[in-house]
Design goal:
eight-stranded mixed β-sheet; 147 residues; globular; 8 strands; 2 helices; single chain; alpha+beta
């Protein structure tokens, strides 16, 4: 696995058996995971096309899973421990009129996982995120992804 940032996009490249609850999600083999920033105030009317355009611009075909966020990529947090690497973009707000935001979590295991373990990891990530948001009295939001 290698990762890099290009402008407003995080690309994670490798050979993955991945699970995602994001756009065009599911469980399947992919070569790329994408987390792409949409500028604040821009419409998300066609998120699949936005990700396809981003992938095509990077020379990647349809072999990817992707997420959209309003969080700039320079705020992406990358954590690594042993064989797990986690990429997080988080932007939540209590501000009115829209107390919401997005949290994208991509977790990678260099050890690989069976499908059941991928799904369990998604559930644990979602539960941990919800617990953290509740502890901070913030709205529950976001999409976890596992690669």
């Amino acid at each position: 696995m290698r990762f890099y940032f290009e402008a407003d996009t995080l690309f994670i490249r490798g050979t993955f058996r991945a699970a995602s609850t994001g756009i065009s999600g599911g469980i399947r083999p992919v070569s790329t995971l994408i987390n792409h920033t949409i500028p604040a105030g821009e419409s998300h009317k066609e998120p699949e096309k936005e990700l396809e355009f981003t992938a095509a611009g990077a020379g990647i075909g349809q072999d990817f899973l992707g997420l959209l966020t309003s969080v700039p990529m320079h705020k992406c947090c990358v954590l690594q421990y042993d064989f797990i690497t986690v990429f997080i973009t988080a932007g939540v707000s209590r501000e009115q009129p829209e107390p919401a935001g997005s949290i994208n979590i991509i977790a990678y295991s260099s050890e690989g996982m069976e499908d059941a373990a991928l799904l369990e990891a998604l559930m644990v990530i979602g539960e941990a995120k919800a617990e953290a948001l509740l502890a901070m009295d913030l709205p529950l939001t976001g999409t976890p992804s596992m690669g």
